[in-house]
Amino acid sequence: MPFKRYVEIGRVALVNYGKDYGKLVVIVDVVDQNRALVDSPDMVRGQMNFKRLTLTDIKIDIPRIPKKKSLIAAMDAADVKNKWENSSWGRKLIVQKRRASLNDFDRFKVMLAKIKRGCTIRQELAKLKKQSV
Amino acid sequence: MGKRVVFLKQLPSGLLLVTGPFKVNGVPLRRVNQSYVIGTSTKVDISGVNVEKFDDKYFKKEAKKKKTKTEGEFFESEKEEKKTLPQEKKDDQKAVDGALIKAIEAVPDLKAYLGARFSLRSGMKPHELVF
């Protein structure tokens, strides 16, 4: 029951509401009880309400409010991008984005592939059932 | 239901000239209004197809011959008229589809795609779908 992900300087969070929806940002300072100063390599440093953030497991080592260059260097050193893309949460989001971007022809091809996969699975299952009888 | 066809060109009247191709899904060379169509981002190579000769006059209906009807003839005449498609139009269809089907078969699964119908299933949100 205890908390595992804390709001701290260097905590990586996912923006879940607003203009920067879906971006990964780093908490670089805490403004007050409700807001954090937040920064990311591709955005201007600014404040965000905690309600707009979902904390991740990733934390990087930075001093309070680093310069953009040192923030980027720290993110590279901690390999945030790869850690995120290999985590199950990150992988799920990537799959969701891919599915949303499929065009009508792609959806047709996916349907054919699903049918083919189900067919081979059922054939293997039938073989195994026959053996065990 | 939602037939998937190949768009060839826009005619001067604003209607779209499309073809199935006929062998693939039964849609002949015909005109269709933009409002009843969803454009997709899938493209087929139609450089081998010549659509210069098709325009709105080609699709105009032939003027019906006026017949004077007496009571006896009134019931019979409806059965005698049969409209067959002129051979020239059948040849045009074959010419256009010949080159087109070769281009379609070059892309894997595209022929099956054009032969299938489109419909909205449960969970599909049209305003979120990418076509």
From TrEMBL, chain A:
A cellular component annotation (GO) from this entry:
cytosolic large ribosomal subunit
Originating organism: Dioscorea zingiberensis
Name any Gene Ontology BP term: translation
Q: Name one GO molecular function term.
A: mRNA binding
**InterPro entries reported in the protein's UniProt record:** Rib_uL2_dom2 (IPR014722), Ribosomal_eL14 (IPR039660), Ribosomal_eL14_dom (IPR002784), Translation_prot_SH3-like_sf (IPR008991)
In terms of superkingdom, the source organism counts as: Eukaryota
One Pfam short name: Ribosomal_L14e
User: Family assignment?
Assistant: Belongs to the eukaryotic ribosomal protein eL14 family.
Large ribosomal subunit protein eL14 domain residues are 45-117
Specify the protein name.
Large ribosomal subunit protein eL14 domain-containing protein
Sorted alphabetically, the keyword list is: Ribonucleoprotein, Ribosomal protein
UniProtKB/TrEMBL annotation, chain B:
What keywords are assigned to this protein? Ribonucleoprotein, Ribosomal protein
UniProt KW Membrane keyword: no
User: What segments bear the compositional bias annotation Basic and acidic residues?
Assistant: 69-93
Q: Where is this region: Disordered?
A: 66-93
- InterPro entries under this entry? 60S_ribosomal_eL6 (IPR000915), Rib_uL2_dom2 (IPR014722), Ribosomal_eL6_KOW (IPR041997), Translation_prot_SH3-like_sf (IPR008991)
Query: What family does the database annotate?
Result: Belongs to the eukaryotic ribosomal protein eL6 family.
Q: What is this protein called?
A: 60S ribosomal protein L6
